[in-house]
Amino acid sequence: MVIVDSGSGAVQRRRTWILGGALLVASALVQLAQGALAPLYRASDWLFAAGALLLVIGIGRAGSVTARRPLGTGAVIALVVVQLVAPYVASVVLPATEGRVVPLRSQVSIGEIFFWTQLTVVFMLAMIGATQIARVGVVPRPWNWAPLWALGTVTLAFLIPNAPFWSPLFSSGEDVSGLLAVFRAFGLVRPLAVVFLGILAIVLGVRSESGSVPVYSSANS
Asked: Which of 101, 111, 153, 205 is the most buried (most CB within 10 A)?
C-alpha cells in the first residue's frame, strides 16, 4: 500500500471527481433531451464513456475511484468499450435500414441472442466495477455503495416492465395507455441514476478534504 501525499491527493480527487461527475450529468441530460437534439445522436454514450473512464483512471492515481486496481478499472473500461462498440456490431450482424434494425422473421433469434448477450455482459461488468468501488473504499462511506444502489435500481426498472405478467394486459385489447405511461417513466430511471452518480461525484469532489488516501498497488489486487 502506498500513501499519496495529502495535498496532491486531495487536488487529484477534486479535479477528477468534479470533471468526471460533470461529464456523467451532461451525458444524462443529453440522453433525456435526445428527441430534441437529434444531431447529438450517441453523444450521451460518449460523454458517459469519458466520465466513467476519467473516474476510474483519475487525474493522478489518488483520483481513481477504483485506486486503479486492475479488476475494477478493467471492468469499467470493458463496460465502456462494449457499450460504444455494440451498436456498430449490431449494424453489421443484423440487417439494417437507415440505421435501424429490421425485425426480419429469419433474424429474430439472432437479434434476441445478441441483445441478451450484450445485456448480460454489460450487467456483469457493471456489477464487478460497482462492487470493486465499494470494496476499495476510496470513495467515502456510505457513498462508496452508490454505484451498486444505482445499478440495482436500473436493473429493477428494466426487469419490471419486461415481466411476463404484463403480457396478458397488452394482448387483451384493452386501453393500455396508462401502462405505457408507467413504462416510459421506468425508462427515465437510468438517466436519473446517472445524474445522481454525477452530482454525488461533484459534491464529494468539492468536499474533498486534505488527508492521506490509501492507494493499492497491483500486488494487493
From this structure: 205
